[in-house]
């Protein structure tokens, strides 16, 4: 009998073959017990012949481990509702322990072999798989990297004799297999969610037992995602087949659904409006049956919601992510094989029409808005949520910008409790923890840790040059006493780009995070292409993390060159000159702190240049987007989030900027592109508030 009760901490058992030395294994078990607060034990084939620690549960197995595994797969003891079988201790994680009552680890490696995140975890829900399981496992074993690059998690409940023998044999020979045996079947998408929470790798994929993959499918899609950091989910062209091969051999015919849709795609590619009156939303679920996606998606978008969307939970999840501006990828190689199974999960049930209407109700509005020439986000309502925030900083300064950052604070007033209570909101973490001089702030006479619950916005990226204002880099101030003393009360950090959010997750994985777009004023003077042609000018705006001598090194034939300076620009410029040399050109028209009307006139009639060392969110980017002003900018990940992958004026250096500036058709193309882009993404202040209010981070406060 395995000593488990519903209230007990999970039990981690190490299988101990008769006659083997368990000294090293016991040491590792003790370390895991201390680190993860779990109970530990030995599952022994024979009574140990040496003393054992007192905190160790010792269970004498009635049979060798392979036989015991098969017995437990076939039937769980009455005291256990779930048990996981893992290859060895090196593959046990807190995430696996959190999802089950008992973990049995086989003998073998004790410690993880270095960094294991890059790779893919396959998640398979097993339900009545007798007709497929042999062929499916043969196909899985043939995947490139299955023993090293791929981890495979199986979620099972009641198993047939065929399935018990299949998984028993797999566990006997494959260390990368994890089998979680539940007493009750939680449902398809709940199994996916369980497997994703247990996954060790950066990438995940569902692996359905009636589908097959080319040996290169997983490796190819992981490479696609690595090469395209803005893409969240990737799939290959699909080959449908109608007779399942018992041995898992791949069909010869490769039809290649979606092969003509190669490359990036987005929200409006996942469905289309029918011609009915009123229109309906017809699915076009391009990720289809076996995509590979970033596990981190679930930090932002939650889980597959079968309770709400039923069999359409995966389609709804992709719609949710891509509606937020995420990109997806279609590889045209026909590497995925889809069995057209009339009894599959997505064809079962009598409630399909109602569930389709649920998806339609949540996502059809942007399609109708697009058809009618309205911004897709115009139909998004403000959620009805309680006021939870205590807004601070309304009267503080956060730097000199055309659109005061204080406007952003005022935009969140629908979430402010107004009575001085609630979760404290810090609009600029760098101010409180680095340069602020108000009482309590880091540079004041009385810096004080935050002792109440708080959230805040992080602005500075992790990859900023160490010579460019290093004190405000999160690497630096996260290591201060003030930060460390305030961190326990932090309930989340907001970033203004997903790139910074990803970096933050690496540095502090347990910290709740949210990425939202930096809002700006949209009722502005638009770019006048005729005025630009009549007087060609290129203007460099801003200073923080800018390559400030870019405008001086730009030749800009036929253009006036203008550099706008603020109070601290000269100091940053001096630091750049000291590091890289003096390239100042006296022909550049340098202007200091121009008034707003002059600034607006320049941005509405000039091309902007903004080459940067690093960035997270950037006022100049959103101000140019608002005006549809063409700007020459390097394609940093955060910039691509705002401007899109296909923006025509990306320039990696001054030479590329000069080449683009010399092509009038490129300037016109960029202006036309930005007119559409400013409609496609929501840069409104109300949208900023709405995105925070609707987020999981806010719900958790």
Automatic annotation (TrEMBL):
<keyword id="KW-0732">Signal</keyword>
<protein>
    <submittedName>
        <fullName>Glycosyl transferase family 2</fullName>
    </submittedName>
</protein>
<dbReference type="GO" id="GO:0016740">
    <property type="term" value="F:transferase activity"/>
</dbReference>
<keyword id="KW-0808">Transferase</keyword>
<dbReference type="InterPro" id="IPR050834">
    <property type="entry name" value="Glycosyltransf_2"/>
</dbReference>
<dbReference type="InterPro" id="IPR029044">
    <property type="entry name" value="Nucleotide-diphossugar_trans"/>
</dbReference>
<feature type="domain" description="Glycosyltransferase 2-like">
    <location>
        <begin position="171"/>
        <end position="244"/>
    </location>
</feature>
<dbReference type="InterPro" id="IPR001173">
    <property type="entry name" value="Glyco_trans_2-like"/>
</dbReference>
<dbReference type="Pfam" id="PF00535">
    <property type="entry name" value="Glycos_transf_2"/>
</dbReference>
<feature type="signal peptide">
    <location>
        <begin position="1"/>
        <end position="20"/>
    </location>
</feature>
């Amino acid at each position: 009998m395995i000593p488990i009760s519903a209230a007990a901490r999970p039990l981690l058992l190490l299988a101990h073959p008769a006659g083997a030395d368990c000294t090293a294994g016991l040491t590792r078990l003790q370390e895991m017990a201390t680190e993860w607060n779990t109970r530990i034990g030995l599952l022994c084939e024979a009574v140990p012949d040496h003393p054992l620690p007192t905190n160790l549960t010792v269970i004498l197995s009635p049979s060798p481990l392979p036989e015991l595994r098969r017995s437990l797969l076939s039937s769980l003891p009455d005291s256990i509702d779930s048990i996981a079988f893992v290859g060895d201790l090196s593959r046990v994680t807190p995430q696996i322990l959190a999802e089950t009552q008992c973990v049995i680890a086989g003998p073998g490696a004790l410690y993880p072999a270095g960094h294991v995140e890059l790779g893919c975890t396959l998640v398979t829900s097993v339900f009545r798989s007798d007709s497929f399981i042999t062929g499916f496992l043969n196909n899985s074993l043939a995947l490139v990297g299955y023993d090293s690059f791929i981890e495979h998690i199986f979620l099972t409940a009641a198993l047939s004799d065929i399935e018990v023998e299949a998984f028993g044999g797999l566990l006997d020979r494959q260390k990368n297999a994890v089998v979680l045996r539940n007493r009750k079947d939680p449902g398809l998408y709940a199994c996916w969610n369980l497997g994703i929470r247990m996954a060790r790798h950066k990438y995940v994929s569902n692996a359905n037992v009636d589908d097959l993959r080319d040996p290169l499918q997983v490796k190819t899609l992981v490479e696609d995602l690595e090469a395209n950091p803005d893409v969240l989910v990737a799939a290959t062209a699909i080959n449908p087949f109608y007779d399942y091969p018992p041995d898992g051999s791949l069909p010869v015919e490769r039809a290649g659904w979606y092969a003509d849709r190669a490359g990036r795609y987005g929200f409006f590619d996942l469905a289309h409006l029918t011609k009915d009156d009123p229109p309906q939303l017809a699915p076009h679920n391009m990720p289809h049956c076996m995509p590979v996606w970033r596990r981190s998606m679930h930090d932002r978008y939650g889980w597959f919601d079968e309770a709400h969307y039923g069999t359409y939970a995966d389609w709804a999840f992709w719609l949710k992510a891509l509606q937020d501006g995420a990109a997806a990828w279609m590889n045209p190689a026909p590497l995925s094989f889809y069995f057209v199974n009339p009894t599959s999960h997505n064809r079962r049930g009598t409630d399909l029409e109602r569930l389709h209407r649920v998806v339609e109700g949540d996502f059809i509005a942007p399609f109708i808005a697009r058809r009618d020439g309205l911004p897709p986000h115009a139909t998004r309502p403000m959620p009805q949520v309680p006021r939870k925030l205590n807004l601070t900083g309304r009267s503080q300064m956060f730097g000199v910008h055309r659109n005061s950052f204080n406007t952003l604070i005022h935009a969140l007033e629908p979430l402010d409790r107004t009575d001085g209570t609630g979760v404290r909101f810090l609009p600029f973490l760098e101010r409180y923890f680095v340069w602020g001089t108000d009482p309590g702030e880091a540079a004041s006479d009385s810096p004080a840790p935050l002792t109440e619950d708080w959230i805040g916005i992080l602005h500075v990226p992790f990859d900023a040059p160490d010579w460019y204002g290093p004190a405000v880099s999160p690497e630096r101030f996260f290591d201060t006493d003030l930060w460390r003393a305030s961190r326990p009360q932090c309930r989340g950090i907001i970033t203004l780009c997903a790139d910074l959010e990803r970096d933050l997750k690496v540095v502090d994985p347990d910290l709740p995070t949210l990425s939202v777009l930096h809002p700006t004023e949209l009722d502005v003077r638009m770019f006048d292409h005729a005025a630009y042609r009549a007087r060609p000018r290129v203007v460099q705006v801003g200073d923080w993390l800018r390559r400030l001598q870019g405008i001086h090194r730009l030749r800009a034939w036929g253009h006036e060159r203008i550099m706008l300076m603020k109070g601290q620009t000269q100091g940053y410029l001096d630091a750049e000159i000291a590091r890289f040399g003096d390239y100042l050109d006296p022909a550049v028209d340098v202007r200091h702190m121009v008034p707003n009307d002059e600034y607006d006139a320049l941005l509405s009639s000039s091309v902007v240049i903004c080459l940067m060392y690093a960035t997270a969110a950037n006022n100049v980017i959103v101000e140019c987007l608002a005006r549809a002003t063409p700007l020459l900018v390097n394609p940093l990940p955060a910039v691509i989030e705002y401007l899109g992958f296909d923006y025509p004026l990306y320039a990696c250096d001054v030479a590329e900027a000069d080449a683009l500036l010399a092509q009038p058709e490129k300037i016109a193309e960029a202006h036309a592109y930005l007119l559409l882009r400013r409609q496609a993404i929501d840069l409104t202040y109300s949208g900023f508030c709405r995105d925070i209010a609707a987020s999981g981070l806010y719900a958790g406060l």
